[in-house]
C-alpha cells in the first residue's frame, strides 16, 4: 500500500506538470525541441508511475508494461538532456546521433525494451533490467556533468536547478540498481521511495522551465507559494525530528518517559509557532528563495499592488504620510521608518514616523544631510556612512544618526525635478547589501510617494484657498448688507431732528436699532459658517408676508411714500429667511435711492409661484444698462457702492430656484419682480392630512 500511495502521488504530480507545460509551451523559431522533449519525459514518468499504482491497487499488469515504461522514462530524461546539451554546444541537428552518449543510450534502451518484451538468454549471467537501469543512470549522470562543464559560469545559474533535479533523480537510480546488483535483491522501501524522489525533482524542473529561455515555456511560479511550501515542508521535517527525539526520550526513561515526551513535544510546537510568526525569519526565507529560485529579487506585480493598496487606503485611520512610510518599509522588509517633508528654507521637518520610537525627538534632518540629498538626488546609504570628512557638521550628522538607532537608507521623494521630502528606513529584518535592483525600485517608489504627497499638498492648498475665497465673498456680501443697514440708520438720523421728540419715533428708532444689531450678529455668525462649510445656507419654509413686513415697516416712518400694494397671507417659500430678507432689502434700498417719492412693495401668489414686486417712480434704466451693467459685479453707479448688490441678490434668488426680472422705462420708473416656487407649510400639511 505504501508503494501504491507513493506511485499514485508521483503519477498525479507529473500529470499536473505535463498539463502545465503543455498549456504554457509556445513553439519558437528553432522548432521547440527542448519543450517537446521535456513534455514527453514528464508524460512518460507519469505513465510509469500510474502503471505501477494501477498494478498495486486495481489489477496486476504484465511485468513487461511497468518495466518498459520505466526504461522509457529514463530514456526520455536522457533524450531531454541530450537535446539541451546539443543546444549548449551549438551542435547541428543532423549529427545528433553521432554523439557517443546518444548512441550508447539508444542501444541500452533498445536492449532493455527487448528484454522487457522477451527475456533474453543473457539473464542467466546477469539481470539485464538491472544492468540497463544502472547504465542509463550512469549515462544520465555523465550528461549532467557534461552539461555543467559546457555551460559558462555566467549561465550556470540558469541551468543549476535542472542539473540538481535530474542529477538527484539519476543518482537515486544509480544507488537503487547498484545495490540490487551487489546484494542480489531490490530493497522494497527503496522501490517505494523512488517515486517520491521523482516528485522532489518537480520544483527544480518548474524553475528550470521558467528560467531557460530556449525551453519556450511561459511558466510563472508564485513566490508566496514557494515560501508557504517551504514553510510546510520545513515544519513537517521539524515535527518528524521532534517526534523521533520524543520517542527516544520515552524509551530511555520508562518511568517519566510519557511525561517528558509530552512536555518536549508541546514545547517544540510552541517554538515552531514562534518561528513561523517571526518577521525576520520570513524575510530571510524570502531572500533565500529569491536568490536561488528566481531571476529577480522582487515580484514586481505583487509588490506594486501591495504598495499602491497601502498608500491609497483612504479608509485607514492613519494619514497619508504614515501610510507612505509603511508602504515603502513593507517592500524592503523594514520594521520602521520616518518621513521628512521639505519646507521653507529647505528645512526637512519630520511629518510622520512608523513604528520608530527612536525617531520621536528627530524634528528635522541635519542641514548637511539635507544638502547632500539635494546634491546627489539618489538614495543615500546611511549604514556605510557618509563622506563628510572636513565638513564642520560631520559630528552633528553622526550624532543624529546614532540617536536614530540603526538607520539604513535615506530615500528622496521627487516630483519631476523637485525634491519634496525624504524617507528614512531602518535596517531590514534580514540585513543585506543594497543592490542595483533595490536602487531602481527605490527610485520608482520615491517618485510615486512624492507625487502622492505633492497631490495632497496641492489639494490642501486648494481647499484653504477655497475657504479664503468663500470668506472673501462672504465679507463682500456682509459689507453690502451692512451698507444697507447704515443707510437705514442714516435715514433715521436725518429725521431725528424733526421727529426726535415724538414717543412713536423714539420707539420705532429703538426697535430699528435693536433689529439692526440682531441682524449684524446673525450676519457675523453666517460669515463664520460660510467660511467653514461653504456658501449654501439651509433653506426652510418661510412666510412671505412676515418677511416683507420686516423689511418695509422699519422704513415707513421715515419714508411716507413707502407703501404696500397687494399683500397676501399664507404664502410660504423655501428660502433661508436671513438671506432672502437681505435680497429684498437690497431691492427696496435701490428703490429708495432712485425714487422721486413713491415706492410700492407687493407680495402674493399667482400661477403657482410666489411673486414679490418692488416698484419705484425713479428715472428708470435703459435696456442696454440692464443687460450689460446692472448685474455685473463690482460695477456701481454710486460713489459709496460696492457694485455687488444686484449680483448678490440674483445669485441668492436663483440659488433657491427663483428668478429675478427687471422692468424699467426711462422716465417712468422701475419694477423688480421676484418669482419663487411655493412651499407647503406644516399647517397646510396638517389640513391636507385631515379627511
Topology of this protein?
Elements: H1 2-24, H2 33-57, H3 64-89, H4 100-117, H5 128-150, H6 156-183, H7 188-200, H8 202-211, H9 223-252, H10 257-276, H11 279-293, H12 300-311, H13 320-331, E1 337-342, E2 348-354, H14 367-376, E3 380-381, H15 394-404, E4 407-415, E5 418-426, H16 436-499, H17 503-533, E6 540-543, H18 544-556, E7 562-567, E8 572-575, H19 577-594, E9 599-606, E10 609-616, H20 623-630, H21 645-655, E11 659-665, E12 669-677, H22 682-689
Parallel strand pairs: 7-9
Antiparallel strand pairs: 1-2, 1-5, 3-4, 4-5, 6-8, 9-10, 10-12, 11-12
Helix pairs in contact: 1-2, 1-7, 2-3, 3-4, 3-5, 4-5, 5-6, 6-7, 6-8, 9-10, 12-13, 13-16, 16-17, 16-19, 18-19, 19-21
Q: What is the helix tally?
A: 22
* Estimated structural class: alpha+beta
| Strand order, sheet with most strands | 2-1-5-4-3
Task: Calculate the terminal CA-CA distance, rounded to whole Å.
Answer: 88 Å
The residue fraction in helices comes out at 55-70%
Work out the radius of gyration: 45 Å
Task: Please report which band the strand proportion falls in: under 5%, 5-15%, 15-25%, 25-35%, 35-45% or over 45%.
Answer: 5-15%
Describe the largest sheet: 5 strands, antiparallel
Average pLDDT level: 75
Amino acid at each position: 500500500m505504501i508503494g501504491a500511495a507513493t506511485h499514485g502521488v508521483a503519477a498525479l504530480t507529473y500529470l499536473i506538470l505535463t498539463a502545465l507545460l503543455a498549456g504554457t509551451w509556445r513553439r519558437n523559431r528553432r522548432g521547440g525541441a527542448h519543450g517537446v522533449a521535456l513534455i514527453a519525459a514528464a508524460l512518460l514518468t507519469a505513465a510509469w508511475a500510474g502503471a505501477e499504482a494501477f498494478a498495486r491497487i486495481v489489477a496486476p499488469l504484465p511485468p513487461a508494461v511497468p518495466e518498459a515504461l520505466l526504461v522509457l522514462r529514463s530514456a526520455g530524461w536522457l533524450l531531454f538532456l541530450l537535446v539541451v546539451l546539443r543546444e549548449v554546444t551549438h551542435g547541428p541537428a543532423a549529427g545528433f546521433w553521432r554523439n557517443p552518449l546518444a548512441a550508447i543510450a539508444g542501444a541500452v534502451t533498445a536492449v532493455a525494451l527487448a528484454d522487457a518484451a522477451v527475456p533474453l538468454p543473457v539473464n542467466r549471467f546477469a539481470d539485464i533490467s538491472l544492468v540497463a537501469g544502472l547504465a542509463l543512470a550512469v549515462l544520465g549522470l555523465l550528461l549532467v556533468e557534461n552539461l555543467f562543464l559546457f555551460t559558462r559560469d555566467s549561465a550556470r545559474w540558469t541551468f543549476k536547478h535542472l542539473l540538481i533535479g535530474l542529477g538527484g533523480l539519476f543518482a537515486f537510480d544509480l544507488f537503487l540498481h547498484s545495490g540490487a546488483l551487489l546484494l542480489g535483491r531490490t530493497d522494497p522501501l527503496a522501490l517505494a521511495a523512488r517515486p517520491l524522489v521523482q516528485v522532489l525533482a518537480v520544483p527544480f524542473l518548474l524553475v528550470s522551465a521558467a528560467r531557460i529561455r530556449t525551453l519556450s515555456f511561459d511558466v510563472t511560479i508564485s513566490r508566496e507559494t514557494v515560501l508557504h511550501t517551504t514553510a510546510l515542508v520545513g515544519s513537517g521535517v521539524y515535527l518528524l525530528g521532534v517526534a523521533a527525539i520524543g520517542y527516544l526520550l520515552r524509551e530511555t526513561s520508562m518511568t517519566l518517559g510519557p511525561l517528558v515526551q509530552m512536555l518536549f513535544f508541546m514545547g517544540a510546537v510552541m517554538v515552531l509557532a514562534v518561528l513561523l510568526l517571526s518577521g525576520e525569519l520570513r524575510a530571510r526565507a524570502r531572500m533565500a528563495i529569491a536568490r536561488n529560485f528566481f531571476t529577480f529579487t522582487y515580484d514586481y506585480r505583487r509588490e506594486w499592488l501591495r504598495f499602491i493598496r497601502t498608500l491609497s487606503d483612504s479608509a485607514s485611520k492613519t494619514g497619508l504620510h504614515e501610510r507612505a512610510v509603511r508602504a515603502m518599509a513593507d517592500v524592503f522588509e523594514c520594521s520602521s521608518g520616518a518621513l521628512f517633508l521639505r519646507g521653507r528654507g529647505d528645512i526637512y521637518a519630520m511629518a510622520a514616523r512608523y513604528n520608530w520610537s527612536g525617531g520621536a525627538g528627530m524634528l528635522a534632518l541635519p542641514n548637511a544631510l539635507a544638502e547632500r540629498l539635494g546634491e546627489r538626488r539618489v538614495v543615500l546609504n546611511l549604514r556605510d556612512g557618509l563622506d563628510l570628512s572636513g565638513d564642520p557638521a560631520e559630528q552633528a550628522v553622526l550624532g543624529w544618526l546614532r540617536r536614530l538607532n540603526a538607520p539604513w537608507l535615506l530615500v528622496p521623494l521627487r516630483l519631476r525635478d523637485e525634491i519634496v521630502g525624504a524617507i528614512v528606513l531602518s535596517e531590514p529584518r534580514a540585513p543585506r547589501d543594497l543592490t542595483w535592483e533595490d536602487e531602481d525600485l527605490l527610485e520608482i517608489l520615491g517618485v510615486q510617494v512624492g507625487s502622492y504627497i505633492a497631490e495632497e499638498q496641492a489639494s490642501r492648498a486648494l481647499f484653504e484657498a477655497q475657504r479664503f475665497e468663500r470668506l472673501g465673498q462672504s465679507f463682500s456680501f456682509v459689507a453690502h448688507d451692512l451698507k444697507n443697514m447704515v443707510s437705514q440708520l442714516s435715514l433715521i438720523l436725518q429725521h431725528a431732528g424733526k421727529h426726535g421728540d415724538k414717543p412713536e419715533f423714539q420707539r420705532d428708532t429703538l426697535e430699528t436699532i435693536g433689529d439692526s444689531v440682531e441682524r449684524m450678529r446673525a450676519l457675523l455668525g453666517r460669515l463664520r459658517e460660510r467660511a467653514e462649510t461653504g456658501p449654501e445656507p439651509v433653506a426652510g419654509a418661510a412666510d412671505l408676508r412676515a418677511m416683507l413686513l420686516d423689511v418695509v415697516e422699519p422704513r415707513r416712518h421715515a419714508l411716507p411714500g413707502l407703501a404696500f400694494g397687494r399683500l397676501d397671507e399664507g404664502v410660504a417659500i423655501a428660502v433661508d429667511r436671513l438671506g432672502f430678507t437681505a435680497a429684498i432689502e437690497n431691492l427696496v434700498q435701490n428703490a429708495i435711492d432712485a425714487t422721486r417719492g413713491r415706492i410700492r412693495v407687493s407680495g402674493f401668489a399667482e400661477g403657482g409661484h410666489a411673486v414679490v414686486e418692488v416698484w419705484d417712480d425713479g428715472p428708470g434704466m435703459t435696456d442696454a444698462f440692464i443687460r450689460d451693467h446692472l448685474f455685473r459685479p463690482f460695477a456701481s453707479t454710486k460713489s459709496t457702492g460696492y457694485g455687488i448688490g444686484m449680483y448678490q441678490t440674483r445669485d441668492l434668488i436663483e440659488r433657491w430656484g427663483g428668478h429675478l426680472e427687471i422692468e424699467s422705462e426711462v422716465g417712468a420708473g422701475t419694477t423688480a419682480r421676484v418669482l419663487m416656487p411655493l412651499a407647503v407649510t406644516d399647517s397646510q400639511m396638517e389640513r391636507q392630512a385631515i379627511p
